[in-house]
Design goal:
118 residues; mainly beta; OB fold (Dihydrolipoamide Acetyltransferase, E2P); five-stranded antiparallel beta sheet; 7 strands
Length: 118
């Protein structure tokens, strides 16, 4: 073998990724993920259940909180299926509980549970 030293100058990237694949269930809040080649911080998401009290004509709902106060600043969901379930159940006089997801200062109704007739 030769005792000569070989020096290589490379200005190209070896193609190694700066990210690695990960299952969705292992992502931690306040961690980072890549969506469409852009880094995004994973937000803290909270889930809260409220009892539906009323639906106003302008599309807002009145919800009962755990401590007995009302929450009147949420709109009905835009999902047609969920929207019709909420309106139909309320019109039938059922006791409904809506699930609200909150993240980054925004809230949205995302699910509905029927807890029986009034």
């Amino acid at each position: 073998m030769s005792d000569e030293e070989h020096h290589f100058e490379s200005k190209a990237d070896a193609g190694a990724s700066k990210t690695y694949p990960q299952q969705a269930g292992t992502i931690r809040k306040n961690g980072y993920i890549v969506i469409k080649n852009r880094p995004c911080k994973v937000p803290h998401v909270t889930r809260t259940d409220y009892q539906l009290i009323d639906i106003s004509e302008d599309g807002f709902v009145s919800l009962l909180t755990e401590n007995g106060n009302t929450k009147d600043d949420l709109r009905l969901p835009t999902d047609e299926n969920l929207l019709s379930q909420i309106k139909d159940g309320f019109a039938e006089g059922k006791d409904l509980v809506v699930t609200v997801m909150s993240s980054m200062g925004e809230e949205q109704i995302c699910a509905l549970k029927d807890i029986g007739p009034k």
